[in-house]
Structure formats: C-alpha cells, structure tokens
Amino acid sequence: MMGLREGGVMVRAGLTTERVVQAGAELADDLGFAELTASTLARRLGVKVPSLYSHVGGTQDLRTRVALLALAELADRAALAVAGRSGKEALVALAESYRGYAREHPGRYAATRMRLDTATAMASAGPRHSQLTRAILRGYHLAEAEQNHAVRLIGSVIHGYIELESAGGFDHSLPDATESWNRALDVVDIALRNWP
User: Which of 4, 9, 76, 172 has the fewest CB atoms within 10 Å, counting from its CB?
Assistant: First the structure.
C-alpha cells in the first residue's frame, strides 16, 4: 500500500491518529493493557514502528491515548445508565455499567486505572466519573463534607471488586461472584442511607 510522507516519516495510507488509538484499544482488549506497546501495535497494523510516530509519540503516549479513549467511552456508558435514576437504582446502574464495560473491554477497562499526570487527568473524562458518582449521592442526602469519602467508598468497592473478579479471584469458591457483587452493592446502599 502506498504511503504518504508526514513529518519526514512514511505513513501507511488511511492511518490516522484516531485509527491508531482505536486499534491500540482493540489490541489492549485482546492482549491486555500491560502488553500494549508501539511495536506490538505496529505488527498488528502491518506497519513499521516509525510509521506510528506521526500519530503517537511512543508506547507511553499510546497508552495514555487509549486510557483517555476508555475513560470517555466509560463515562458515556455510565451517564446513559444512570440517567433518570436515583438512590440505589442509580448506584446499581453505575456499578453495572462499569462491570459490563470491564467484561466487554478488559484492556480498555485496565487503561482507565492508569495513573495520568494532573493536567491530563483534569482534561480527560475522569472528572465526569466523579461527577456521576456525586450525582448519585444527591439521592442519599449526604453532607457536602462527607461526599469525598462516599465517592471513594463507592469507587473502591466497584473497582476493587471488578479487578479481583477479572483476576479470577472468585473463580474457585461459592457463592457465584454475581451474588456477592449484588450483596456488596446492597451493603454500599445501606452505608450511604445510614451514613454517620
């Protein structure tokens, strides 16, 4: 396939930053986010590694861009899930949207846990996740001073459970992981309704 010269580098025709990042996200889902590198992506795309450098600045930049994509996708999914709901119904919808995304896109979900520098994090969809959680808390009438604690509790339970489940932590014991997941959400709901 003919290439175009961009910045002194031959680039495969049709290759754009958006396509490179999307392909990186798909590769992360296939191989695991930790295995995502510029060289593995170049092999997947059938190009030389330098061809990617007009679109991404190497492995770290690629991973950051995949993380930003995943945060945005997940925020959109969560917003749709909680729209029009409140209280426990909203809490469960948020949690299920995260768990579903992690099952469908394990590499992308792992990317959402990537530590970003402050400026990148603040410009990302990350703050939307916090805002969604705070919106849920309105249904529980928590005092403003307690909301950060509650947001952290909800995040710890949801993401902690998902990561343990993804790692196979519940595969060899009963009851079924979904039963425990539902009980965990019941407990979070009770804690929020009876916040000290």
Answer: 172
pTM higher than the cut 0.85: yes
Q: What pLDDT score was predicted for residue 163?
A: 94
Residue that is written with structure tokens 């949207």 in the block: 97
**What pLDDT was estimated at residue 167?**
85
The DSSP letter of residue 33 is G
Angle at 162 between CA 178 and CA 27, to 5 degrees: 120
- CATH number at 69-193: 1.10.357.10
CA neighbor of 37 nearest in space, from 27, 29, 47, 46 = 27
Place of tokens 């990186």: 24
Query: Residue 64 has which token pair?
Result: 């950051």
Contact indicator for 12, 18 with CB cutoff of 8 Å: no
| Widest CA span in the chain | 66
Distance of CA 189 to the CA centre of its chain: 23
Distance CA 139, CA 88 (A): 8
Mean pLDDT of 103-115: 96
Three-state secondary structure of 132-168: HHHHHHHCCCCCHHHHHHHHHHHHHHHHHHHHHHHCC
- Whether CATH 3.30.950.10 fits 3-61: no
